Amino acid sequence: MGFFSRLREDLATAKRRDPAARSKLEVLLAYSGMHALWMHRLTHALWLRPGLKLPARLLSQLARSLTGVEIHPGAIIGRRVFIDHGMGVVIGETARVGDDVLIYHGVTLGGVGPVAGTRHPTVGNNVLLGAGAKLLGPIVIGDGSAVGANAVVLQDAPPHSLVVGVPAISRPRVAHED
Asked: Where in the sequence is the signal peptide annotated (predicted)?
């Protein structure tokens, strides 16, 4: 997918996910979560090239200071991800975020200690991560799940789960009818 096609997809995603978005121009100019994701794409590309890990980290720290969103350049982020009110979002080095994920402010995809290998969460497709949710360790959140605000998630959640509490427990997610 080309640069401009991806940009159009990102802007359409923000307009679809945020009822307060009045125009694509507003999203382009004023949405820090989108700016953080765009910077992450650049830093991730650098991270994958030999000898460019330090510049990738430095750029990611610049993005953090400008947006309030910290995404490690090693993290893998899917398509149509939207970070709403991004301040305080932290996504660790070995985290994986699927497609069509909605992330609210204050979410952490973090580790639980200095261990080798995968040490951050894997988030499936079509997942909602509520404000302040903390997902810690090499856990997996299944497709179609929702993690409640301020939940502290320490265990895997199967697909289509509602994950709430401290520590969080998962239960089947019941779709509501409008």
From this structure: none
Q: Report the sign of the C-alpha dihedral through residues 71, 43, 18, 138, in that order.
A: negative
Nearest Cα neighbor of 72 from 139, 119, 15 is: 119
Q: What are the b/e assignments for 87-110, b being 16+ CB within 10 Å?
A: eebbbbbbbbbbebbbbbbbbbbb
* Confidence tier at 2 by pLDDT (50, 70, 90): confident
* Res. 142: pLDDT tops 80: yes
Q: How far apart are CA 24 and CA 135, in angstroms?
A: 31
Counted residue by residue, the chain has a size of 178
How much is the average pLDDT of 132-154? 97
State mean pLDDT over 134-140. Answer: 97
Q: What is the DSSP letter of 157?
A: B
Class of domain 3-172: mainly beta
CA angle 13, 25, 18 (to 5 degrees): 35
pLDDT band at 116 (very low <50, low <70, confident <90, very high): confident
Question: Would you call 44 helix, strand, or coil by DSSP?
Answer: helix
Q: How far are the Cα atoms of 7, 24, 66, 73, 171 from residue 47, in angstroms, in the given order?
A: 21, 29, 20, 6, 37
CA-CA distances (angstroms) from residue 12 to 6, 23, 49, 76, 103?
10, 10, 30, 21, 16
